[in-house]
Amino acid sequence: MAYTEEELKKELETKEYEYGFYTDIESDTFPVGLNEDIIRKISEKKGEPEWMTEWRLEAFSSFKKMVEPDWSNVKYKKPDLQKISYYSAPKQKPKYNSLEEVDPELLKTFDKLGISIDEQKKLSGVAVDIVMDSVSVATTFRETLAKKGIIFCSISEAIQKHPELVKKYIGTVIPPRDNYYSALNSAVFTDGSFCYIPKGVRCPMELSTYFRINQAGTGQFERTLVIADKQSYVSYLEGCTAPSRDENQLHAAVVELIALDDAEIKYSTVQNWFPGDKNGKGGVFNFVTKRGLCHNRSKISWTQVETGSAVTWKYPSCVLKGDNSIGEFYSIAVTNNFQQADTGTKMVHLGNNTRSTIISKGISAGKSQNSYRGLVKVGSRAKNARNFSQCDSLLMGNNCGAHTFPYIEAKNNSAQVEHEATTSKIGEDQIFYCNQRGIDTEKAIALIVNGFSKEVLNKLPMEFAVEAQKLLEISLEGSVG
Amino acid sequence: MEFKEKLISSYLAFEEDLDLLDSVHQTRAKALKVFEKKGFPTKKDESWKYTSLNALINADYALFPRSEASIELKDVKKYFLYDTDTYKVIFIDGVYSPFLSNTTHDGLDVCLMSAALTKPKYRNLINTYFNKIASLEESLTALNTSYSKEGAFVYIPKKTVAEKPIEIIHFASGEEHSLWLQPRNLIVVDKNSQVQIIERHQSLKEHPVVTNSVTEVYVHEEAFVDYYKLQNDLTSASLIDNTYIQQAKNSHASVHTFSLGGKLVRNNLRYYHTGQRILSTLKGVTILEGKQHVDHSTMVHHSHPNCESHQDYKGIFSERSEGVFNGQILVEKIAQKTNAFQQNNNVLLDDKATVNSKPQLEIYADDVKCSHGCTIGQMDEEALFYLRSRGIPKKEAKALMTYAFANNVLESVQLPSLKKRINGQIARKLGVNLGFEL
Amino acid sequence: MLTIENLHAEVEGRTILNGIDLNVKAGEVHAIMGPNGSGKSTLSSVIAGNEDYDVTQGKILLKGKDLSGLDPEERAHLGIFLSFQYPVEIPGVTVTNFIKTAINANRKAQGLSDLGASELLKKIREKSTLLDIDSKFLSRSLNEGFSGGEKKRNEIFQMAMLEPTLAILDETDSGLDIDALKIVANGVNKFKAKENAVVVITHYQRLLEYIVPDFVHVLFGGKIVKSGTKELAHELEAKGYDWIKELA
Q: Which of A132, A274, B254, C65 stands 20 to 30 A from A120 (CA)?
């Protein structure tokens, strides 16, 4: 792994949220409020077929009967859903042929984010589907993918061009009524990504989406659907940055993964939404539902590095329905200042010989609260299920909290489930040891934190791992003094 | 009439009969209001997620036995620690049995809660300790408080070592068709003192019995309390045990819970600390079969620095039995240098057996050593092979290993005769012929 | 090279060092011996700048530069290396990664650029061969699950890599079997040169069979109560420490 200490040093000097800027692009925004008319309008604006409109309305009627959950270990002021505008798209919505056509203001934003399309195109070989607010405005590498029969586009486009696939799979892993926020998302989602890998195809590049929240008062309701057909493989990267704002912003995404027989999906996330300032003001509410369904001999692997958001509520899960299927969850969650994270996974073993691995690393600093919450469930018909879970917490300072809430439910006598959790802090003796070797304290902490998180960092694709390391250290800046 | 309504309306009649301190009357009245408001816990309560009381409370129970049952010593002797001299506080259907008991006021008090609640000489103790650590919010504890009248009262003064263990046994005679019991125990162990206690609930006939018991234990500075709970009741009997322990500095409190029987058993075990250098030990062995259900809900609240807690629960489940472990370690910000460990290991022997485990860590201090582990699994195949290669048939080898798995919790049992008894019970339950005396 | 003048130090209000004077010249090997609790390890910690100890009087000079007020890493940058009696574990950080970070931190302090990967690799190969260190060992987490001997060998390996001007070996022989002891001693002897100095802190004379000191000092009650040549070490081995206590 490339070592980037010098870059880090530079980054560490930046005190405030470095991506906290606002891009001034004229937006086409709906009036605030949530009702059937708004939902119909969203659907109409996007030119959706009737079945989609109906699907949204059904979700909305479920949603109306639900209440916001409060079982997680986080405290926040519940967002007023009537004060959110449910549709916001940059006004010019052309399909660009070249970068010159792109709004220069937008390009500048990408530059600041360090994800200029140009560079991406040239250097990384990553196809980028950038979601600026809720509508895709640029998609690259599509041709290369198309040759292999891979569909990678916005979900709006997929609804238009591949309705049979969308209709067949949307809501099958996460039904709209699954929970409060998935119901809301199903009713009002404006855009997101769609990916289909045909049978036997190995996707030749990492598919990547960058998300941004841009318009003040605009909640984002992304919808992602990834289908890996039999014997196919895809690695999907999702990275988030958000501009700094005073008011809280709601993000309630839904991500559904379907791995058909013998397929493999690797889904990696680096989440760096605005976490609020040092006094706990502002920041994104990140209430995400992510779940994958594994058919026979398939594998879904979630890797996440969560450093952002004021409040995170997220449990990427695997339903191991098929025999011999595998679920994995690797997570680093960092909280600092007043951040609160309640995150973990669910591994539901239904098929025979299913395996799951959970590695969770929680790092709490400042006045933050960091909770791991995970469920390992072995159904009565799941023979020879295996799970191993390891949850480690690192506490930095004495004003934060680290919590572990595993739920283990086994109904089959051939199950083997193992859960371990530890809590530790960075030892003064470790720092002194590093100091004695000439390594200063700040660097020593970075080194120790990276060591602590290594098992998870190693699971990330290379280009993401570097970014993740960077983020870890930015998020912990100034937390030990 | 719903059973909850019956409990509330019976309260009034019951209360008037009693000659109690004003403060106790008030405590009881307040507690009833809590129960009235909250009712019985349901699966919607996070801490009752895996245990439903519905089957128990959708029935009717006698709250007070109509006639005083008498039982012969020879019929119940086997439930006593007969080869050891002990103090005994024995109840039949909730009523004190002077004939079976062996109490004392000589240097220490081992007597009745009803005496402590009414006699002036205990007034100070009652005002200081009664219902001070038992939860005021938890509905079942509140229900017990509102009905608390009888149980064991133990007071060990300073620098006193209780020379004999104390046995607290509640028998249900089966005279009533179905019975709801609410014993209340208070145990106060003053500075530098020691006591060993064995508690047991035992039905003598296959009639439904539900016991909702509350025990408060106060462990003062440098004191040591060694508490054993033997749960090997008939499958018609259910138990909700609520035990609250408060420890002062340099004290050690240890509770071993052996859950080998009963229909539904719920153990709520709560530890609170008031000083430093405290050691808290919580151990349990659960071996179930049939449709038995045992739920261990533990909580150690670390609120002072330099304390230590150890939790170690083993479960073996066969047939359609269900085990629940719901353990919590809470470490406050101020409780630096806490060492808190929690271990829950389970073996499922049959296809329909279930384990639900929820070991939780809630930590607000950074300089601590806390860990928990939970496993669900089978026997170590390699070890099994080793035994078989020595000529031990598979079935016996398995039984032997299961026995060994459970048995290491027994190592810390301080009473040799008790250890032997439990050891024998475990072996019998698992079908192991030890063929030798331990 | 190293000059210690009337050094007093305490920890949590307890005085441990009670007026130490010591002068170590370049090219010399000094041994500091003494019974348990005499202040040997405190002395090494104080030289390295451990903030748990307060220097109440006196000073430490390295090549004439007063070390007081300098952070541990600044002292390291000046060329002080402490081989810890109990090296700490850093999970997830490999030996290689750690040594690379340390070397580059020191180079940076000297105004040098990072050492190139190939040069670093060459150096690692050379020094690890010297100390009979397996390459697998280099990819393991620092000190995690290391045996006592592996930890000590790793310390000497780091010393060889960092090339300090003053190496202090705190009880480096403890926990070593005879073969490991020889390897470690060989590493130290290869390192020894005209322009650097070694201070060996030890309870037993055993290590001094292999790393031959020019001077031996006996520490007792936080003071150097006797100094001599290597013969003094033999005398201590034969007579024990009791007669020293009487000197104090």
A: A274
